[in-house]
Specification:
This protein is α/β, with parallel strands linked by helices. 26% of the residues lie in helices and 22% in strands. Keywords: Amino-acid biosynthesis, Arginine biosynthesis, Cytoplasm, NADP, Oxidoreductase.
């Protein structure tokens, strides 16, 4: 049984981690630390866990920090690095960071199993990918690896409001978000850096020309991405490139049918569809931003790094209704 600690337990990603880990057959949750929720029952904040756990939040992990096999960092962006430097977890302890802090740090393994599975199995420091970055990379990386993404790449993605985190802001309030759509951070989204790094890792020599338009959607969770570029390859060839790239992937599946968010919400799946339109290939991908885009992928990385079956505790089911 692996003992697990969570730092920053009050937000959406920590809530999803808990939803998975309280039923994980090889995990015992040692502590859930939250400075803002200290002393409260977990279920006071994550009410979907009523009947699932009797844990309470602690204000500090204290000596328990040294008695766990893995630590998940679920704090806000920019806080993880300071926490690691202050607490210096043992090198033998697995640390999975869900923030942006280490995603382009060469001393941490980038936790996208579709390209880094072997490195993850021996890693002790894992930077979990961003949600938009995961969805975009699932659509783009097979093309990059085949040498087909050296020119301009056009990406559009729409995300649910939970992607912005639990702290309220003018663009996450229900009255603003409901029945509304808006573009934000056009061509300058923070996830472009990690996408570019991974594209280079699989063989893309171009360092620019990935044009990304992120869109806020009027729903709570899920990401749907469309990616297109010019190519002379046939649809049959392109679909085979994707099937070969994701052969053996535990959660990423290539389909010829039109995909939608309800197929992936509340699951750790990534779905990818490939079409040819004239001289352009159109790739659509879909994930749940809180699961394959965050906490589900973090558990997938934990499983790999701790020598557990990759899909353990993660066979979550979608519902079309």
């Amino acid at each position: 049984m692996k003992r697990i600690g969570i730092i920053g337990g009050g937000g959406y990603t920590a809530g999803e981690l808990l939803r998975i880990l309280v039923h994980h057959p090889e995990v015992e949750i040692a502590f859930v630390e939250s400075g803002s929720q200290s002393g409260k029952a977990i279920t006071e904040v994550h009410s979907d866990l009523v009947g699932e756990t009797e844990l309470t939040f602690t204000g500090s992990a204290g000596t328990a920090l040294g008695d766990v096999d893995a630590i998940f960092l679920c704090m806000g962006h920019g806080k993880s690095r300071g926490w690691v430097e202050a607490h210096r977890p043992r090198q033998s302890q697995l640390v999975v960071d869900l923030s942006t802090d280490y995603r382009i740090d060469e001393s941490w393994v980038y936790g996208l199993p579709e390209i880094n599975r072997e490195a993850i199995t021996t890693a002790k420091r894992i930077a979990n990918p961003g949600c938009f970055a995961t969805a975009i990379q699932l659509a783009l990386l097979p093309l990059a690896a085949a040498g087909l993404a050296e020119g301009e790449v056009h990406v559009n993605g729409i995300t649910g409001s939970t992607g912005a985190g639990q702290s309220p802001s003018p663009t996450t309030h229900f009255s603003w978000r409901n029945a509304n759509v808006s573009v934000y951070k056009p061509f300058g989204h923070q996830h472009l850096a990690e996408i570019g790094r991974s594209a280079g890792q699989v063989g893309r020599t171009a360092t620019e020309n990935i044009h990304f338009l992120p869109v806020r959607g009027p729903f709570a969770r899920g990401i749907l991405v469309t990616c297109y570029l010019d190519t002379d390859r046939s649809e049959t060839e392109l679909r085979q490139i994707f099937r070969d790239f994701y052969h053996g992937a535990a959660f990423t599946h290539v389909t010829d049918d039109t995909i939608n968010l309800k197929q992936v919400v509340n699951t750790n799946k990534g779905l990818v569809q490939v079409e040819k339109h004239g001289d352009k290939v159109l790739v659509t991908s879909a994930i749940d931003n809180l699961l394959k885009g965050a906490s589900g992928q973090a558990v997938q990385n934990m499983n790999l790094a701790l020598g557990l079956p990759e899909d353990l505790g993660l066979r979550l089911k979608a519902s079309m209704f």
